[in-house]
Amino acid sequence: MDGSKRTPVVPLEAGAGPDNPPCPACGEPLFGWLGRRPGLAGPVSRCESCGLGVVGEGSAEDALRELDRRGDGEGATIVSRAGFAAWIGGAGWAGLEPGARYLYTPEAVRRLVAGRDQVVTAARWSPARAVAVMWQTILNSAGFGHDLVVGEPVRAQRRWQRRIDWLVVAALAIPAALVAVPLELAGALFGRGSAISMRFDLL
Asked: Angle at Cα 37 formed by Cα 32 and Cα 38, nearest 5°?
């Protein structure tokens, strides 16, 4: 033996507490991800286990209701927080839409619907939506506003900032598209597509 000490592995449960409430999908503690920002109801937490993002506070019942609003109860299309665009964009990710309370991942959806005796029967990359999310995420990184073209826009407060934002869109729309397509294709290849269409059925 060389006398070296191994770093102890700390389970996620050790982080549970008032500042780290349980994830609505899997019960593991939530940890801070992003602070409060315009258009969102509060700071954003995320689960290290299933990847679900929660804006403010949440519950499994509420997360399922919002999921159903994105589909028909038998399926939904999500902008995935596990996608490549979310990893690239951070606070500029186009999935941070005003009014959103939950930022889903395929794994979080599987765990949520399992709580009402459903199973995910299909999960497919949604290419048109995914490329649009990646494209808008790239544009968000260069301006003051958020989601000016794709999704519900959050416009900059000052007039000169809004003018610059539209100049950015005009100047970078085509270059951003040329970058977004190969990035999103790479994400989909590695199972990290930015938008996923999912179908559910009873167990």
From this structure: 155
DSSP code string of 170-191? HHHHHHHHHHHHHHHHHHHHTT
In a domain, 176, yes or no: yes
* Within a domain: 70: yes
As given in the structure block, the two tokens for residue 178 are 């040329």
Closest to 111 (Cα-Cα) out of 47, 57, 31: 47
Q: What span, in angstroms and rounded, lies between the C-alpha atoms of 154 and 39? A: 6
3-state DSSP assignment of residue 53: strand
pLDDT for the residue 5: 55
- Report the alpha-carbon distance of residue 90 to residue 83 in Å, rounded: 11
Mean pLDDT by 10 residues, the chain (203 residues): 50 61 96 89 95 95 94 90 96 92 97 95 96 97 92 91 95 97 96 96 88
What pLDDT is stored for residue 18 in this prediction? 63
Which two structure tokens, joined as six digits, stand for 98? 């005003």
* Residue whose entry in the numeric block shows the structure tokens 């964009």: 89
What's the domain count of the chain? 1
Q: In what order do the strands lie in the sheet with 102-103?
A: 30-34, 44-47, 53-55, 102-103
